[in-house]
Amino acid sequence: MQYDQRVPEDPVAVRIFLDEAAEPIASYRPPARFHMDTRSMRDGEHTLRIEAVDALGNTGVRLIPFVVSNGPGITVTGLRAGSRVRGGVDIDINAFSAEEPFDPVRAESAGPIPVWTWVLIVVIAVWGMWYGLEYFATPPAFAQTPTYAPNPTLVAAEAPAVQTSVQTPAPVASNAATGSKNVAGFDYSALGAQVYSGNCASCHGETGAGTPGAFPPLAGDPVVTGKDADAHIKIVLHGLSGKSIAGTKYAAQMPAFAAQLSDAQIAAVIDHERTSWGNQAATITPGQVSRDR
Ligand code: HEC
Question: What are the φ/ψ torsions at residue 174 (nearest 5 degrees)?
Fold first, then answer.
């Protein structure tokens, strides 16, 4: 039997070297399993060199760099590899045993609070302030209610200098002089329109015209334009049914609003009805509503 000398054969020997050593630490016939005990090696970088030699004497080499770490683990903060430093540098160092690598007390070393944590705290604080301002801001619909609107009497008392120098009549006096709908500083206009479209317009119509035969018109209605507003207040507070209005008997009921609406809201919507769509009746205040409740 004859072999072509130029055809390489299977490797016949494998030799294993550690680092720069000239003598192999083991040699085998492949395939082989090799057990390496790192505890006899110093911690740090090493290289395993594996050489395979075939029958013709050709050598294949494989280099495997690796790091041995049997000693205590070390954590360092304050100095990183390759960093550029100047003056004094504070460096925190900690070490933890290899037997207990997960002991949190030993593994943790003090470090500065990372920048992203500060950014997150600032973002949350700013959002919280924005939310608080939004939450306590007066909604425009309520800006003119007695609770939120500035009291004209107090405003006048706080600014007496303006009054004397400009020589205008006191605001309270001018209010009384106009004899306006704005009785006792109660300004219903914005709130009244808002309560009306939210609670009444679905039946009585945005323009107070009602629906013929189903819901009575409020424009020109005798109760709404009546001199004594008590009947008007009581109907809105307690509802109404079975009444004939201008010769029409309405099958539907007028719901009671005492539970849903506050005194100010009821007074505002009543004043809105009494001064809209051509109606020109005297207006009321929240105090009258609370008396009729
Ligand atoms: C569900 C429909 C409906 C809604 C909503 C409604 N009403 Fe009425 N309202 C009626 C009906 C029906 C009558 C007539 C009842 C009757 O004749 O017995 C009526 C009657 C009235 C009257 C009496 C008119 C009169 O001449 O006696 C007034 C005042 C009135 N409504 C005001 C309001 C106000 C203010 C609101 C909103 C806060 C409102 N209504 C919401 C259906 C409604």
Answer: -65, -35
Residues 58 and 52: their CA atoms lie apart, in Å, by 8
Establish whether residue 255 lines the binding site of ligand 1, counting it when its CB lies within 6 angstroms of any ligand atom. Answer: yes
Output the CA angle 139-143-147, nearest 5 degrees.
105
Between the CA of 285 and the centroid of ligand 1 the distance, in Å, is 20
Query: Which residue, among 59, 5, 50, 44, has the nearest Cα to 27 in the 3D structure?
Result: 50
C-alpha span between 66 and 190 (Å, rounded):
80
* Distance between CA atoms of residues 78 and 90, nearest Å: 6
- Measured from the CB, is residue 245 less than 6 Å from ligand 1? yes
Cα 64 to its chain centre, rounded Å, is 53
Residues 6+ apart with CB under 8 A from 191: 141, 142, 144, 145, 264, 265, 268, 269
- Does pLDDT of 10 surpass 90? no
- Is any ligand 1 atom within 6 A of the Cβ of residue 235? yes
- Residue 241 near ligand 1, beta carbon < 6 Å: yes
Q: pLDDT at residue 182 above 80?
A: no
74-87 tens-digit pLDDT: 888 889 899 999 99
Q: Is 146 in the pocket of ligand 1 (CB under 6 A)?
A: no
Q: What's at 256, amino acid-wise?
A: A
Residue among 254, 261, 270, 271 to mutate when testing ligand 1 (max atoms within 8 A of CB): 254
Work out the average pLDDT over 171-198: 64
